[in-house]
Inverse folding.
């Protein structure tokens, strides 16, 4: 019971933190003397990386949840589908949806066109939700994943303390998504590609057991 209460407490804290940061980036940009929207494009990469790192350390691999099924007469394809469905219903994905909703509300309050606001918020939400599958792929290559995350986080840390200007380049990605809302299709394809890659990796993993 105490573990359940503890998980619930930290879960609520994480939800509040991530949603608050989604909106707070606009205010932080203003404090840095930037246009709120341009500043958001610059700093939103921190949200993406933070979500990916937290998932990497705390999101369980779905295959660990289905070991009992391996000794039963259940097709491996069905087991993999169950794994992916289970992971898609994770708490982290729920937080991503709330983050996307908060960003949408903020954009609408800034009098940005409804269509642009909705499609941009949807693009960001898909980009975050894709981490659900990206982290599963990274977990299959742990010897590469951790150094990758450490280096990426280190670069952004240097950027934050103004030693380098990494976000001066990453911001263009999000700015393009905003200026060309139809690119939401590209994010949808990106998410689907990661989903298919996860299916293939987990199917091969189960075959090797």
């Amino acid at each position: 019971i105490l573990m359940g209460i503890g998980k619930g407490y930290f879960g609520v804290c994480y939800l509040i933190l991530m949603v608050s940061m989604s909106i707070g980036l606009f205010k932080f940009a203003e404090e840095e003397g930037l246009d709120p929207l341009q500043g958001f494009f610059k700093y939103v990469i921190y949200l993406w990386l933070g979500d990916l790192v937290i998932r990497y350390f705390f999101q369980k691999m779905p295959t660990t949840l289905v070991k009992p099924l391996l000794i039963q007469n259940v097709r491996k394809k069905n087991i993999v589908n169950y794994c992916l469905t289970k992971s898609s219903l994770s708490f982290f994905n729920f937080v991503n949806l709330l983050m996307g909703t908060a960003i949408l509300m903020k954009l609408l309050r800034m009098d940005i066109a409804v269509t642009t606001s909705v499609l941009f918020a949807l693009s960001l939400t898909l980009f975050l939700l894709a981490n659900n599958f990206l982290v599963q792929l990274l977990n299959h290559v742990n010897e590469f994943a951790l150094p990758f995350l450490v280096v990426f986080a280190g670069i952004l840390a240097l950027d934050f303390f103004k030693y380098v200007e990494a976000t001066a380049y990453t911001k263009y990605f999000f700015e393009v998504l905003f200026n060309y809302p139809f690119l939401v299709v590209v994010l949808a394809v990106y998410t689907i590609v990661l989903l298919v890659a996860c299916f293939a990796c987990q199917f091969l993993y189960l075959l090797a057991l």
Notes: The chain has a mean pLDDT of 88. The CA atoms of residues 51 and 128 lie 7 Å apart.
